[in-house]
Amino acid sequence: MNRCLGIVAACLLAIPAAHAQTKFDLTTLDKDMSGPRTQVLVLGSVHLSQLPKEFDPRSLDPMLDRLAAFRPEIITIEAISGEQCDLAARHPTIYGADYCPDTTKARAATGLDVPAAIAGVQKALAAWPARPTPAQRRALAALFLAANDRASAYTQWLQLPEAERHAGDGLDETLVAMLGEIAARNNENYQIAARLAARLGLPRVHAVDDHTGDNIQVPEAETEAFGQSVMAAWKSGRSELNQSEQQEKSLSAAPDLLPLYRFINQPEQLWIRADVNAGATMRAKSDRHYPQIWVNGWEIRNLRMVANIHQTFRERPGARVLSVVGVSHKPWFDQWLGQMQGVDIVDVGKMLE
């Protein structure tokens, strides 16, 4: 009897080991799915704020034409959401104090703090008409500003006729001036995402950046050493990237930025950036493992950003989604979004042809 029990126990112990050796490809689970597949296009972008002062937003028009042909129904941007801004403000010792734009002026105009404004946005969008009036657009723009969602506020502002871009319905003169300042900012969230969203008649863009996992915690006495170690790691792998950035600089000065975006979104260019960010950093030697710690934070940030993107189309299977993000994030976005069930990654190179 004891011998039999021993045999059974040995067999039971062998089962987990056999399963542990099995390799699962989760990307195949949707091969027989029913229903529409979601199409995600990730546009890797330069940060427009770093371009020469002579930058003209009209240089983006040829690229915007191609992105418009994709007809995205959802557009995401590399910005912190109002919810996360509010979270950080309530926990400055965890996330830091200098985190998001100040909403004092918008709160004074609307009487709403960030949570109340977010609730107001949700309520307005739930009943958003096919043909909103100018008053409705001004009111929603004010709510977005109070909710710390400036790009969405600008999206609404752009859809107003010139004669209707004035104070009223929650927008006071201070907020109107703020929207004017936003219009003049060289920022891809405004000059690419918001402009395209307005062109397509979308009510908003979606902020998906996330810094809740990359606020690296090292002792204050080690902060300088940490930064120096990570910078040295990046520098050690920059030879190819330095050459690429010279080409970028030349393309950035052109009156048409479409060739620049074609260049930076090429697979070989994406690989160069990925290797600097993670490859060279993981190869770097450090007694305290600082470079590896930085990569941990980088990947957590990207994982949470990807999850935030997924949340935007959670209830909309088959949606066409455009994600505008700093080009260094694109390899991670393509890899991880492409592993999600029912999601196809659209070739940005073909879209920009």
TrEMBL record:
InterPro entries: DUF5694. Keywords: Signal. It comes from the Bacteria. Residues 1-20 form the signal peptide. This is TraB family protein. It comes from Pseudoxanthomonas indica.
